[in-house]
Write a sequence for this structure.
């Protein structure tokens, strides 16, 4: 048994961890209480089996690649970082990337991850054509929009609960360069931020960073980042068409004492961040895809900043109608508390593709909180606003929502459960997350 | 005809072998993988072709079947620029202490086979006047330890073979590299207690081998810390060393 946790390091749970070397061995590893694990970047308990956790990152082979179309078949344990580094210089990038490149393809499919382009281009699953799935019942099936389509749409966003994804075929985006033309807009309050995001609907990439501790007239002040892929003709003479991503060099070597993060240090950080961003507002500039898409990847193990007890991310999505009022209510409470951290991210989402996919048309807000004091009660309180507004929480980030919050947010749950049951009648595939939120007690 | 350089990896199915083949293919080499089970190497060949758009050959090679070596080398479509021997067998020290066959297999897999095959390539390379030979040895060969001296002694023999070959080839266009990886997280070391700060992942070894070939390094300790650790271990007086049960 090994102690396992997600990226938020809460909760920490005992599990039998296996690292199979062949697909046959993956099959043999499945027994009651098994879940697949990619690179452990989900924050909470999604990638921890109730009995056994099967690590997939050893499976990182490309099976085939067509340079004419950008269609690729690969093993599900391959990291997005590897995909970007290998095929970027050849003129292809994934259509959708989350805020870190250290996720596996299997994890990206299972969470149907969204990037800064969800409002116009959808999520990761939209570019997946088919998957090879090892079900809990012991079959290995190929699933696509046409073939075994129930299994396909339940697996996209299904948090690993339909079985273990072994391989996937997906389409990559042809790009001329690895550079993004970035434009920063400065919004002085929440209304301005939401207006700017709406105005950015036609931009390929858009996201807002909110100063979630600012109060009074600065309440909701934000920096909005818009981005487009840059063409070759936009590069200055002699610039490499494809920038190199640096390995996260020095990491955070130890858990920082919880003291380091307090309302004063966070406020100072946000003030500095806002001012530095505001200076760049208006103009546009070219940035490498690495800092643009993966700003935190340059600091290894940054999750240790939150100290030994770990941290929680709260990411909700609120349907468009009435979103302004609810987001205002939530942000007000957060600003009053003052301990939410560096990352308050606001962005627009479109319709999700999988049955259990998180995105729905509206605004998503993501906040980080260190595990301390009455934080669990506080977040329950925030959840009530989310539920009342017809919103939901992101399972890939969740470690603590209640069954009621979950059921209210995901009305397609029954359909998902029926498909899950048909693929795994004995209930072999289970995670700590499913035990907490889905499974019959 | 391609003007690209070529490398062959003996022991291509190991984690270090895969990583090394990737490093060379990424750098634009055509690569060949050689191993006992050619069919099992197919997915890795497909991976290399798809990733890096290079030529990938597959060849059957069994390090214990020394009688096949001449035929193996003669059967290659062309003499490669770089030959990398990754083959090796950790074995089980306790078993080897009483089971002569097991001990012999460890010795032959780590010393006899790798030395003979690299020696054979060396003759061809010296005749041609160019080429690089890489032997993956081990820090375990730097000093025999109570816990793995069967393996360690074979690696010591291999290291000595490589250093002798290097000296002999020094004024030719042929270069010999000795690689001492230290702890690597692989299939071979699964379940073993590895010391975190001294342990590296297989891709680090692959990159180190490529760098050593391109920079013509003689002896590479993949993690620089190992050079220091082994320096200390090598210089301990025997009277002290033999009391250390490790
Ligand atoms: C810094 C940071 C930024 C992030 N930014 C974003 C973002 O912008 N957008 C976003 O959507 N997400 C974001 N995330 C969340 C992350 O993208 C998801 O949690 C993703 O699922 C992690 O992938 P992983 O390979 O690490 O999977 P894990 O965390 O190991 O697993 C996540 C889920 O995928 C399942 N899974 C993994 N591999 C397989 C497989 N082979 N077969 C079946 N199921 C599998 C697991 O069972 C689990 O339910 C971010 C996370 C971090 C740490």
């Amino acid at each position: 048994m090994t102690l396992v946790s997600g990226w938020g390091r809460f909760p920490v749970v005992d599990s039998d961890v296996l690292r199979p070397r062949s697909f046959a061995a993956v099959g043999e590893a499945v027994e009651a209480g098994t879940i697949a694990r990619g690179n452990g970047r989900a924050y909470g308990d999604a990638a921890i089996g109730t009995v056994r956790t099967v690590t997939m990152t050893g499976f990182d082979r490309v099976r085939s690649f067509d340079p004419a179309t950008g269609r690729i078949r690969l093993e599900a344990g391959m990291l997005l970082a590897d995909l970007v580094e290998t095929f970027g210089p050849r003129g292809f990038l994934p259509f959708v990337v989350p805020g870190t490149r250290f996720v596996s393809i299997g994890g990206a499919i299972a969470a149907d991850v969204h990037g800064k382009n969800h409002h116009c281009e959808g999520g990761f699953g939209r570019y997946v054509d088919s998957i090879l799935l090892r079900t809990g019942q012991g079959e290995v099936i190929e699933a696509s929009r046409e073939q075994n389509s129930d299994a396909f749409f339940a697996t996209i966003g299904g948090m690993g609960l339909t079985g273990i994804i072994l391989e996937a075929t997906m389409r990559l985006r042809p790009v001329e360069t690895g550079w993004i033309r970035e434009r920063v807009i400065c919004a002085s309050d929440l209304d301005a931020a939401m207006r700017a995001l709406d105005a950015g609907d036609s931009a390929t990439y858009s996201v807002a960073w909110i100063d979630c501790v600012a109060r009074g007239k600065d309440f909701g002040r934000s920096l909005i980042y818009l981005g487009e892929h840059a063409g070759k003709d936009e590069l200055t003479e002699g610039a490499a068409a494809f920038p190199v991503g640096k390995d996260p060099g020095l990491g955070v070597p130890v858990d920082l004492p919880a003291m380091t993060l307090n309302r004063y240090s966070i406020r100072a950080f946000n003030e500095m961040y806002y001012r530095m961003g505001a200076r760049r507002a208006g103009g546009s500039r070219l940035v490498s895809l690495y800092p643009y898409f993966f700003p935190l990847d340059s600091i290894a193990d940054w999750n240790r900043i939150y100290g030994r007890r770990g941290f929680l991310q709260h990411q909700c999505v609120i349907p468009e109608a009435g979103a302004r009022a609810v987001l205002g209510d939530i942000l007000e409470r957060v600003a009053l508390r003052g301990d939410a951290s560096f990352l308050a991210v606001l962005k627009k989402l479109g319709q999700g593709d999988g049955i259990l996919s998180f995105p729905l048309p509206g605004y998503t807000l993501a906040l980080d909180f260190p595990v301390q004091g009455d934080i669990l009660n506080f977040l329950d309180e925030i959840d009530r606003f989310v539920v009342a507004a017809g919103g939901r929480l992101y399972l890939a980030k969740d470690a603590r929502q209640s069954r009621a919050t979950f059921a209210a947010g995901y009305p397609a749950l029954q359909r998902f459960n029926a498909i899950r049951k048909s693929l795994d009648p004995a209930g072999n595939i289970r995670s700590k997350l499913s035990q907490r939120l889905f499974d019959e007690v | 005809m391609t003007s690209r350089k070529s490398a062959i990896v003996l022991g291509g199915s190991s984690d270090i072998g895969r990583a090394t083949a990737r490093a060379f293919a990424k750098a634009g080499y055509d690569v060949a993988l050689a191993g006992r089970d050619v069919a099992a190497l197919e997915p890795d060949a497909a991976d290399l072709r798809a990733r890096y758009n290079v030529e990938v050959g597959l060849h059957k090679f069994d390090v214990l079947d020394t009688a096949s070596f001449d035929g193996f080398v003669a059967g290659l479509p062309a003499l490669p620029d770089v030959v990398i021997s990754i083959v090796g067998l950790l074995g089980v020290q306790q078993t080897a202490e009483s089971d002569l066959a097991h001990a012999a297999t460890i010795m032959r897999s780590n010393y006899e086979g790798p030395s003979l095959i690299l020696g054979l390539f060396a003759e061809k390379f010296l005749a041609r006047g160019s080429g690089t030979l890489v032997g993956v040895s081990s820090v375990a060969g730097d000093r025999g330890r109570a816990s793995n001296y069967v393996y360690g002694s074979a690696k010591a023999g291999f290291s000595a073979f490589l250093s002798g070959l290097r000296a002999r080839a020094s004024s030719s266009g042929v270069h010999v590299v000795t690689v001492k990886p230290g702890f690597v997280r692989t299939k071979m070391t699964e379940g073993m207690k590895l010391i975190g700060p001294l342990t590296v992942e297989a891709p680090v070894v692959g990159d180190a081998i490529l760098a050593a070939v391109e920079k013509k390094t003689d002896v590479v300790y993949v993690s620089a810390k190992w050079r220091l650790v082994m320096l200390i271990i090598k210089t301990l007086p025997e009277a002290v060393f033999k009391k250390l049960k490790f």
Remarks:
- Chain B has a mean pLDDT of 93.
- Strands of chain B lie at 6-10, 30-35, 56-60, 82-85, 131-136, 174-180, 183-185, 199-201, 219-221.
- The first strand of chain B starts at residue 6 and ends at 10.
